[in-house]
User: Fold Helix-turn-helix domain-containing protein from Lentzea fradiae.
Amino acid sequence: MSDLTFGALLRGWRDRLDPAEAGYPRSARRRAPGLRREELAELAGLSVEYVLRLEQGRATNPSPQVVAAVARALRLTTTERDQLFRAAGLLAPRDRTVGTRVPPSVHRLVDRLGDLPIGVFAADWSLLWWNDMWTALHGDPSVLPPAERNLARALFGTGEGRWSLRPITSAAGPYAFETSIVADLREALSRYPADPGLRALVDDLRETSPFFCELWPVAGIEQLAGDLKTIGHPELGDVTLDCDVLTVPGADLRIVTYTAAPGTRGADQLDALRGSLVSETR
Assistant:
């Protein structure tokens, strides 16, 4: 497949991906076995027209961010992702850089937990994948540019991500959440010192956020594990849930999950969020 064009690779891999693996129902009305073009567009955060232009070869200079988003949406292997980058005339991501691929095993795991809010983050706290319950709890990340789907930018930046972030407080105390994110970024930078995107993120936040600068030299090296968080929801009010961060060492990912003990107000509010999703599909 090395001599295929970007558009041919895109079409072939879109046809290959089982819609159910991407969270879409199988239907007898489907004329093709794989993802529809509009489904790929939704998963990658692109317009359907732009995906069409990519497949037809009319959009010839996709950015690295676009290619990475498409590769994640199609669940490509590292080799396939690199092939897609080369077909776009771009250098494949270098070794020792922050990974953005969510392995199929992780997709299967989080798909099984679809009745809980779940987000999958890269080592730099860029949001790579989320489910409908995450959207119901935190708002829809797909309305943001891909670069703004980053938790550190949402907490300390000046862009759209910051203004879309719903209020979050931690039971660990004031600024414990923010301090833990800064500590995690410092640890990530020690593992990926040559990653230009991570370095640019840190430099940008140090330039634009006095609070980030204040935390940077004093944040410890402890990694996020679990916490009791309260999210200000526009319809449900304060939603207090157990927030756990599961790490995927081989891929250096963080799976963030929200749960509540049975019989608690938080459990009732999660049920309400599930109910709202059912109502939207009717």
Q: What stands out?
A: The chain has a mean pLDDT of 88.
